[in-house]
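[step 3/7] inverse_fold.run input=structure_tokens len=377
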């Protein structure tokens, strides 16, 4: 049976390089045309005779690169002109601290809607800076659900409300955009930004580590409404100060030039796919293939998230035992289905199927799951 599966996982050839299906949660699979283009331009970009990695971030050429990346992101995200798009470092996790450092004054509190492991971290980091109120947590149900909007009661003095639109580890995703009735909404969209349309105008800040749907690790995208910048207190450390970074167009110090360039290529690829609306359609189809199979497996595979909030990006599920999960991952890896082990904190299986993950890879996984269940029932 295993040999049959081996045949249906096609070797993706690029020149002489064999590629696998990479289900990693991040850093994650990149679009192949992006890698090929980066390879083409590695030694000399745009006739400059050097790699973008070797170029001053103050050079005219890099100026075109960063402006181009920003323009493409702005269009794809439909971010209006009163929002700034910033390229930061320190990962999405630094935003857990930087947001309260800038926007949580000592006499106020911030509300946290916690639906998974990243939300827990965001709230606990904020609590080191100021008053963080967890107004909702689905921890008691093992982070399987997200609340209805009507279940949420915000604090009247909240400086902002923070939530995680897609919990990468738990595989739960909001299917609506949170409305806090005028309180600034801050969203960690690290693992579902650009996977479906977001109404940016509903947010004061949207942030995301790039390494899932946007590009390589080492860049964090922050989309911030301009009026928020007026709230930044004086004497913030310069590189933890959104206003300073915005005033310097993300060049307050040396940015991740290579990352910003590569994000531009990913945006170009996404445009060629028809943009965010088209990619959402494909993401819905890919996720449906997997969830439908899980649901039809007579309980052999058990999805983690409640049906109403299943993530389109991170499909989390269990097998009948941990031993079988281990065997499943080992065998999958051996036939080129890589990165399926769930996060070390929760175990189980996680198939991350971001924008760049091909539908054929999902079909190959389902074929393997079918075979595995029949051999290990
Ligand atoms: N938030 C979410 C939703 C994430 O998935 C991650 C990383 N997987 C982070 C925050 C932390 O990102 P980073 O490693 O870039 O700091």
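[step 3/7] decode complete -> sequence:
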């Amino acid at each position: 049976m295993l040999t049959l599966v081996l045949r249906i996982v096609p070797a993706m050839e690029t020149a002489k390089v064999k590629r696998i299906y990479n289900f990693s949660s991040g850093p994650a699979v990149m679009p192949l045309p992006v890698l090929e283009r980066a390879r083409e331009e590695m030694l000399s970009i745009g006739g400059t005779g050097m790699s973008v990695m070797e170029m001053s971030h103050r050079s005219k050429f890099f100026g075109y690169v960063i402006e181009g990346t920003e323009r493409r992101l702005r269009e794809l995200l439909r971010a209006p002109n009163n929002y700034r798009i910033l390229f930061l470092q320190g990962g999405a996790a630094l935003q857990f601290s930087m947001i309260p450092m800038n926007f949580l004054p000592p006499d106020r509190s911030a509300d946290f809607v916690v639906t998974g492991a990243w939300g827990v971290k965001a709230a606990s980091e904020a609590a080191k800076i100021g008053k963080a109120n967890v107004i909702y947590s689905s921890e008691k149900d093992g982070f399987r659900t997200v609340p209805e909007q009507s279940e949420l009661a915000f604090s009247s003095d909240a400086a902002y409300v923070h939530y995680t639109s897609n919990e990468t580890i738990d595989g739960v995703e909001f299917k609506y955009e949170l409305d806090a009735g005028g309180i600034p909404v801050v969203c960690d969209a690290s693992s579902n930004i650009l996977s479906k349309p977001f109404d940016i105008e509903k947010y004061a800040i949207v942030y995301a580590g790039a390494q899932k749907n946007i590009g390589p690790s080492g860049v964090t995208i922050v989309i911030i409404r301009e009026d928020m910048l007026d709230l930044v207190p004086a004497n913030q450390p310069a590189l933890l100060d959104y206003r300073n970074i915005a005033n310097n167009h993300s060049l307050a110090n040396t940015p991740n030039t290579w990352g910003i360039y590569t994000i531009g290529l990913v945006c170009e690829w996404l445009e060629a796919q028809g943009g965010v609306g088209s990619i959402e359609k494909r993401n819905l189809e890919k996720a449906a293939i997997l969830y439908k199979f899980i649901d039809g497996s007579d309980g052999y595979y058990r999805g983690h998230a409640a049906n109403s909030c299943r993530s389109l990006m991170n499909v989390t599920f269990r097998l009948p035992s941990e031993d079988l999960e281990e065997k499943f991952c080992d065998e999958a890896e051996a036939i080129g289905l890589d990165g399926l082990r769930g996060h070390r904190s929760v175990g189980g299986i996680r198939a991350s199927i971001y924008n760049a993950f091909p539908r054929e890879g999902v079909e190959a996984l389902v074929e393997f799951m079918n075979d595995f269940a029949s051999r290990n029932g």
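[step 4/7] annotate
The longest strand covers residues 131-137.
Residues 1-11 have pLDDT under 50 and may be disordered.
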